[in-house]
């Protein structure tokens, strides 16, 4: 774990070092009055721009470095302390040591001043900052490195990945609480399973039905990228900022096109998370062969058969071996309706609980994600609470009433909604810092009846004449109609 | 609305989908479950006879009434019984549930029902029950890809002899069987724990529950006002149905039912405030996203200094020209439009100078140096 994070941080720093050599610093320490240009250089806009450019360069360099890093034998960990925004002096300290037990530290300090010509002011980012711009692992498109040494796999739903901060972390247990009245958990499961198959990750699927393999016929297929363009533009409207700025005319070579969107990576052949078209079934070749294992859990008492299947499946992805190939392989387990009433074990609550506990323990030491869905209303309340506590990531789906006029007035987009998704818990592995989401309830919509999207619940525009608002957050709309001076 | 139920049962399920399942739930406060069951049964039989339904036959699993009851019921409702062996079979779990009479070699056979009914001797063995239901159904359909419907008289009786998980297994296997087009069953909800009722509701796609018109406490005695209300409960009731639709939404409907000699009548509810959906609605936010139209509008907005830095000569406004301000900020406001936006054009600001000594610069509109 620590090695991996050391590696990623290392490559970041290395690139910065290479560019640092190129800068010219007029170390002027005299404290002269800055001209307008130089003042402009210090404004936040410039530095933001610079930072963005630096990141782009960094990412490019990283990719190259990551290739080279594989060959290099010794691992050097460097740490650079960065200037903070307002000051003109920057300290940098470098500490390097080998991967062996020996600790060789040499400190080098340099002083730089930042009030230089604007073209050369390149503030660097602290390597302590939370590297939220995730670096894609070069070889495997299905995995993404996240903070704190975790690796994410996609859930199959782009919106859900965003909400959860990257996806499902490997080694975590995701539980989805079903609603007895709606089949939305199947949508989540389908996308999850399809995403795994598309990324060539082996899958174990268990279900209480008599013929689990027939469910594979309902898995959706990823759409072609042509259809994605219209949806990508939504997410990028806030990236392409147009800034009207008075000093822009001085910024000759920095006159950048702020509207330039980052390439969405749609030209990559394999993206981290695909959009799945729920109306198109997944091609058969994806689940032929040994990649998918289906288990029926109806008949096994005490879940013995399922436990054995899981154990053999998880043994393939053990994290303890450090070979190169193992990190590229991840597995997925999907268990549907674990406590469904038609299973014989459904009233053996302690057995089910011990199964989950043993599964979770094995998961932690393997590169797999498990998704378990269960209807909490069929368990006793204490048991249901225990199950919820076992989960690393806890979601729940809910049904919405049909043709409900009150809901239609309250929420915009009610017509397209098929259900609600609540995020109760988000997995945080290797850290104590919790995730606090802005919104925990999302509406499940089927965009064009094919794509699953999750949206925040938005209040419908209140009709001014009725003057009634529903007492939720927006109180200003509809209250006063004219402004009087 | 009861029509809706019957129509859903008639239409059956799509290919690859589980068959629609109806739970009729009653209690001692409103004990019309069997009447509703009979109503649904006759409606479905009519549809089957008329050929309008997906299923071509009906298998009745009789636990609480004898087969002759059903034959008489069908006769009363005007359905032709003579040809009934072509489309209905009754699995008799009423006469001899544990096989005692067979042990004692007592045989009771009545003429009419013998062709229709077959005995089930051990209701505790649900596997066997399942297979006999399927066998009966296939016997009705014959070879080929037909469908049949299943009606289970009283699931509460089944639950007396078997555990809920085995009953659940039976029901879900029936639902997922290819040739079963629809299934419905009756349940007395006050005979069971809450969990049992939840399990059965989980397994069904429609839940019809019967509730009394007037909720009165049954313990009071000698209260004449209450008696008349109680009496009403035995003639009328409320019929709530929750449909689980395919798209995942739940439709809730309500009707009143009246029991008469000839059967049961459903009327729509006269004055209804609407079922109070006490759902805890989560916090909603204002929509800060822009629709397509709004995005194109925003792209068209001319911002002040945008055109500078392009290499063209820069003209800075020096306060002499009048600018046609083009700032169209409305596209950036959330879609919950404030009424105040429309009023800004109407107000006027009238300003009198305090003294003539003021520098003329202070008169300038600070927005003047924006260069568009």
UniProtKB/TrEMBL annotation, chain A:
Where is the protein situated, by its record's location annotation? Cytoplasm; Nucleus
Region of interest (Disordered), ranges: 209-238, 464-485
Name the UniProt key words of this record, in alphabetical order.
Answer: Coiled coil, Cytoplasm, Nucleus, tRNA processing
Under the heading InterPro entries, the entry gives: Elongator_complex_protein_4, P-loop_NTPase
> What residue range is the signal peptide?
none
Q: Where is the composition biased (Basic and acidic residues)?
A: 225-238
Q: In which pathway does it act?
A: tRNA modification; 5-methoxycarbonylmethyl-2-thiouridine-tRNA biosynthesis
Does the record's keyword annotation contain Transmembrane?
no
Q: Which residues form a coiled coil?
A: 46-76
Q: What does the similarity note say? A: Belongs to the ELP4 family.
Protein's UniProt name:
Elongator complex protein 4
Q: From which organism does this entry originate?
A: Xanthoceras sorbifolium
| Organism classification | Eukaryota, Viridiplantae, Streptophyta, Embryophyta, Tracheophyta
From TrEMBL, chain B:
Location relative to the cell: Cytoplasm; Nucleus
Q: Record's InterPro entries?
A: Elp5
- Predominant place of localization: cytoplasm
* Native species: Xanthoceras sorbifolium
Q: Which lineage do the record's taxonomy fields give for this organism?
A: Eukaryota, Viridiplantae, Streptophyta, Embryophyta, Tracheophyta
Q: What is this protein called?
A: Elongator complex protein 5
Q: In which pathway does it act?
A: tRNA modification; 5-methoxycarbonylmethyl-2-thiouridine-tRNA biosynthesis
So what family is this one in? Answer: Belongs to the ELP5 family.
Superkingdom, natural source: Eukaryota
Cite the record's Acidic residues compositional bias ranges: 355-372
In residue numbers, the region (Disordered) covers 338-372
Which residue ranges have biased composition labelled Basic and acidic residues? 339-354
Q: Which UniProt keywords apply?
A: Cytoplasm, Nucleus, tRNA processing
């Amino acid at each position: 774990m620590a090695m991996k994070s050391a590696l990623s941080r290392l490559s970041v720093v290395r690139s910065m070092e290479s560019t640092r050599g190129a800068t010219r610093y007029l170390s002027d320490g005299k404290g002269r009055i800055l001209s307008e240009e130089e003042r402009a250089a210090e404004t936040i806009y410039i530095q933001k721009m610079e930072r963005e450019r630096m990141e782009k360069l960094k990412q490019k360099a990283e990719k190259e470095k990551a290739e080279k890093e594989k060959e290099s034998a010794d691992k050097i960990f460097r740490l650079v302390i960065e200037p903070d925004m307002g000051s003109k002096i920057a300290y940098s300290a470098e500490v390097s040591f080998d991967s062996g037990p020996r600790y060789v530290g040499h400190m080098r300090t340099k002083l730089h001043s930042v009030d230089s010509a604007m073209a050369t002011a390149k503030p660097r980012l602290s390597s302590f900052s939370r590297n939220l711009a995730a670096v894609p692992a070069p070889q495997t498109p299905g995995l993404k490195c996240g903070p704190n040494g975790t690796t994410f796999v996609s859930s199959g739903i782009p919106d859900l990945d965003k909400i959860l901060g990257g996806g499902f972390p490997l080694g975590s247990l995701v539980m989805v609480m079903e609603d007895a009245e709606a089949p939305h958990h199947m949508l989540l499961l389908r996308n999850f399973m399809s995403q795994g198959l598309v990324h060539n990750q082996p899958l174990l699927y268990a279900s209480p039905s008599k013929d689990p393999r027939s469910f594979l016929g309902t898995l959706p297929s990823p759409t072609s990228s042509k259809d994605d363009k219209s949806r990508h533009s939504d997410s990028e409207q806030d990236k392409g900022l147009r800034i009207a700025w008075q000093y822009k005319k001085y910024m000759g070579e920095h006159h950048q096109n702020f509207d330039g969107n980052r390439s969405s990576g749609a030209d990559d052949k394999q993206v981290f998370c695909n959009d799945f078209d729920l109306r198109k079934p997944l091609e058969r070749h994806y689940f032929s062969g040994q990649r998918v294992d289906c288990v029926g859990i109806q008949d096994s008492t005490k879940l013995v058969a399922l436990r054995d299947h899981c154990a053999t499946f998880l043994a393939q992805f053990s994290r303890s071996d450090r070979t190169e190939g193992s990190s590229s392989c991840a597995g997925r387990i999907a268990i549907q309706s674990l406590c469904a009433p038609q299973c014989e074990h459904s009233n053996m609550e302690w057995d089910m609980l011990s199964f989950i506990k043993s599964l979770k323990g094995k998961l932690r030491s393997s590169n797999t994600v498990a998704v378990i869905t269960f209807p909490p209303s069929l368990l006793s309340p204490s048991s249901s609470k225990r199950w919820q506590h076992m989960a690393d990531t806890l979601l729940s789906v809910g049904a919405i009433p049909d043709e409900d006029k009150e809901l239609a007035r309250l929420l915009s987009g009610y017509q397209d909604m098929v259900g609600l998704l609540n995020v109760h818990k988000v997995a945080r592995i290797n850290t104590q810092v919790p995730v606090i989401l802005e919104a925990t309830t999302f509406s499940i919509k089927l965009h064009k009846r094919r794509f699953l999207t999750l949206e925040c619940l938005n209040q419908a525009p209140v009709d001014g004449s009725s003057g009634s608002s529903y007492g939720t957050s927006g109180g200003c709309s509809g209250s006063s109609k004219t402004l009087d001076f | 609305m009861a029509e809706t139920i019957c129509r859903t049962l008639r239409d059956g399920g799509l290919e690859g989908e589980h068959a629609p399942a109806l739970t009729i739930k009653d209690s001692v406060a409103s004990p019309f479950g069997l009447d509703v069951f009979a109503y649904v049964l006759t409606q479905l039989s009519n549809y089957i006879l008329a050929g309008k339904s997906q299923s071509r036959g009906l298998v009745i699993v009789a636990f609480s009434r004898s087969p002759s009851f059903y034959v008489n019921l069908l006769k009363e409702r005007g359905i032709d019984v003579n040809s009934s062996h072509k489309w209905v079979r009754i699995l008799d779990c009423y006469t001899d549930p544990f096989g005692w009479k067979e042990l004692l070699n007592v045989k009771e056979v009545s003429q009419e029902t013998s062709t229709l009914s077959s005995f089930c001797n051990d209701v505790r063995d649900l596997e066997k029950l399942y297979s006999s239901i399927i066998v009966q159904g296939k016997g009705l359909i014959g070879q080929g890809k037909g469908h049949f419907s299943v009606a289970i008289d009283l699931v509460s009786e089944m639950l007396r002899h078997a555990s809920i998980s085995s009953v659940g297994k039976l029901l879900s296997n029936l639902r997922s069987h290819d040739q079963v087009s629809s299934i419905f069953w009756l349940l007395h909800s006050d005979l069971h724990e809450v969990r049992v009722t939840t399990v059965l509701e989980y397994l069904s796609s429609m839940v019809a529950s019967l509730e009394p018109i007037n909720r009165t406490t049954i313990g009071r005695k000698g209260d004449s006002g209450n008696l008349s209300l109680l009496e009403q409960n035995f003639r009328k009731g409320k019929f709530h149905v929750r449909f689980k639709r395919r798209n995942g939404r739940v439709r809730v409907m309500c009707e009143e039912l009246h029991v008469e000699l000839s059967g049961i009548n459903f009327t729509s509810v006269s004055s209804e405030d609407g079922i109070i959906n006490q759902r805890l609605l989560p916090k909603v936010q204002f929509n800060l996203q822009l629709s397509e139209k709004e995005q194109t509008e925003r792209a068209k907005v001319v911002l002040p200094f945008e055109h500078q830095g392009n290499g063209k000569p820069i003209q800075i406004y020096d306060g002499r020209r009048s600018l046609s301000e083009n700032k169209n900020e409305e596209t950036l406001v959330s879609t919950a439009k404030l009424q105040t936006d429309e009023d800004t054009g109407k107000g006027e600001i009238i300003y009198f100078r305090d003294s003539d000594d003021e520098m003329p610069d202070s008169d300038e509109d600070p927005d003047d140096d924006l260069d568009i």
